[in-house]
# Entry
Amino acid sequence: MEKLDPVDMKMLDILQHDGTLTNKALSVMLHRSVATIQERRRRLTEQGYIEKVVAILNRKKIDRSLIAFSHVLLISHSADTLGAFESEVVKFDEVMECLQMTGAYDFILRIAVCDMEAYNIFLREKLAKLPNISTVQSFFVLRAPKSDTAYPL
# Structure
């Protein structure tokens, strides 16, 4: 894998903030030809620096205003048990992120639903029905003074 040069780094930084920019717009910003920018963008994608380009939606406008971080402790920690939990929990539309953790809990789930009633239904009808769960402790977001998707480069 090639080492990234300053132009690659600047391109990645710009694209993190606006992935919809055209190659032409990037070429103007980076003082390079459109063909050069197109090639760099293709290479950065092929090498895995750019995983995907998405639109970040306003969760309140799509009725997903309640965010919960649910910490899940499993009864057993065998590879099969951990894998089975992961395989099932990622199927739930409400689960936006599933992170296996070190420490007191095995997983942290970021869950997005419309309200507390929807969270309760999710917990009772989906999450609590998965086998091997010992404990679920949930924390609800009151405000999000910072929610960034861009890494400092």
